[in-house]
Amino acid sequence: MSLRNTARRGAAAMVLAVLMPLALTACSGDDEGPAFVSATPSAAAAPQAGAEPLTLAVTPAEAAKNQPVSTEIGTKVTGGTVQTVTVTDSSGGKVAGAMRADGSSWVPSKPLKYGKAYKATVVVADAGGQTVEKSTSFTTMGRPSKKTGAGLYLFAEREYGVAMPVVIEFTSPVPVSARAGVERRLFVTTDPPQPGVWSWSSSLQVMYRGPEFWQTGTKITVRAALEGVPMGNGRYGDKDQKGVGNISTTKIEMKVDNATKQMQVFKNDNLVKTLPVSLGKKTTPSSSGTLVVMDKLRKTVFDTTDDPGNVDRYRVDIEYAQRLTWGGEYIHAAPWSVQHQGKRNVSHGCVNVSMANAQYLFNLTRIGDPITIKGTERTVRPANGWTAWSVTWDQFLKGSALPIPPELTGLGSTPAPSASATPQPSVSPS
């Protein structure tokens, strides 16, 4: 799904998913699996006095039918740990996969095949060497007729700014009842390691960020393992996707204060330039919040002449445009408002700067660089752009459909910028 380039037109607003990167740990997808035996402790070692009994329960249930191709092998263990999981298809071919870090299930490396039979064998062991082995067989469902697509905004050939969230947008609304299942199939790793959480900003958009901006030079690797995942309303995910985001080694940050009508530009936390701006006039105010550069257009056209509901229609050529919201707010060159920049707001919601300053910013920034705007008459609406940073960390955590690990609460320190007027209501979940 590519960025929408139609200037000055609002795109439909796209709500919160979780956790620390759901890392997988290798667990026998390629070695020979053990032969089937009953789920009874072996006599290899006598249980230690007072030790918790070694037990194992496996899902799906034996002979389960119509299972999604995203099916994981669930493992509930007491008194021991999983040693191996071996999954084979009806021809005896092995399926690659790995255990979740929390040991709750084994995840296939690729979606299973539609309408096929599989067998899973799990072996667990306790500290004394006693083992339990259990197998289950199941059949996957046929290919679904209704699917939900997903767009992942991360491309390995690009370098992103430090505020680049992992953004996934869906072609159909994901109801609240399906969001936890979707989140559990979104895997993120960062190098160097940094905590992070998925959070829904609307029924059509989920984003991942940490309590602070990414460290410079971070590599973000994502697997959106969504093919066959139940997405609600009888729909299933259409495909698995992988993405890589390389965060720049240079931190760029822009800060705009409506009170002064000045933009401060920071490079690696050092102030390098201050320049005048003109923001949106009171009838079309700019949005306060920490926004993210979503797209960059050297030249474009802002055209609202075919919008019958707009009483202030216009068509104008624009240079050095950097998109901040789906609703049509940009940083861009506005030579016609230079006399107002630094003094009064005259725009339709954009951040107006001079031609020279627009070129300077365009050459400096990357997609994913943050700009914080404060003191305007409204706050940016959730999902009107990549708005992950426009709320505090604690507020962001509330958007998760999964429980938050205690170690992740209270990590964020920077409060979200506020508007001078009452914020607009959040987008209602579909």
From TrEMBL:
Give the UniProt record's GO annotations in the biological process aspect: cell wall organization; peptidoglycan-protein cross-linking; regulation of cell shape
The record ties this protein, via InterPro entries, to: Big_10 (IPR041280), LD-transpeptidase (IPR050979), LD_TPept_cat_dom (IPR005490), Transpep_catalytic_dom (IPR038063)
First and last residue of the signal peptide:
1-28
Going by the UniProt record, its keywords in alphabetical order are: Acyltransferase, Cell shape, Cell wall biogenesis/degradation, Peptidoglycan synthesis, Signal, Transferase
Q: Which residues form the active site?
A: H332 (proton donor/acceptor), C350 (nucleophile)
- The L,D-TPase catalytic domain extends over 252-374
Q: Where is this region: Disordered?
A: 407-430
Q: Which Pfam families match?
A: Big_10, YkuD
- Which residue windows does the record flag with biased composition (Low complexity)? 413-430
Q: A GO molecular-function term, please?
A: peptidoglycan L,D-transpeptidase activity
Q: Per the record, what is one GO cellular component? A: extracellular region
Which pathway is this protein engaged in?
A: Cell wall biogenesis; peptidoglycan biosynthesis
* PROSITE patterns (UniProt xref): LD_TPASE, PROKAR_LIPOPROTEIN
- Annotated PANTHER family: L,D-TRANSPEPTIDASE (PTHR30582), L,D-TRANSPEPTIDASE YCIB-RELATED (PTHR30582:SF2)
Protein name from the UniProt record: L,D-TPase catalytic domain-containing protein
List the taxonomic lineage: Bacteria, Bacillati, Actinomycetota, Actinomycetes, Micromonosporales
